[in-house]
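We treat protein structure as text, and this decision shapes the records that our systems exchange. Below, we set out a record of this kind in full and without editing:

***
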Amino acid sequence: MNSIPSKLDVAADIAGPIREDDGDGQLLAISEMSELFSVTLRTLRFYEEKGLLNPVRRGARRFYRGRDVSRMRVILQAKKIGLTLAEVRRIIKLVEGSSPRADQLKELQEICGAQEQLLHEQEQALQEQIAEVRGVSQALTSMLAVEA
């Protein structure tokens, strides 16, 4: 099919770099892009609608360049760690920007650190909810035993 690797979880894709398009690079049809990333065509259209992907249009057909493949890697990893579309846009702007690479990586690390903190807070809230549900369930079990 093509020479783009299909392993997505090997590196910190969120850090880019997002490849520049040289105009002569290999183009992927929407079906190939969908298959490569195991996403639906609707998902790719959604990211296009949100301005995160910019496929080349040839008539009614969409073709994706190397830059879109790189962006998709960033999008999927950001999604996997729970970042919002606004945060994904920020990351893409950051890694496509001209700031020094060390500054980019530091800011990405700060974004990931903030997300990790948020996830820990959510985990604690979930643990509290689970404990509450267990307590209610045990009380109901006791009430049922009395009714029997």
Notes: The first helix runs from residue 30 to 37. Strands lie at 28-29, 56-58, 61-64.
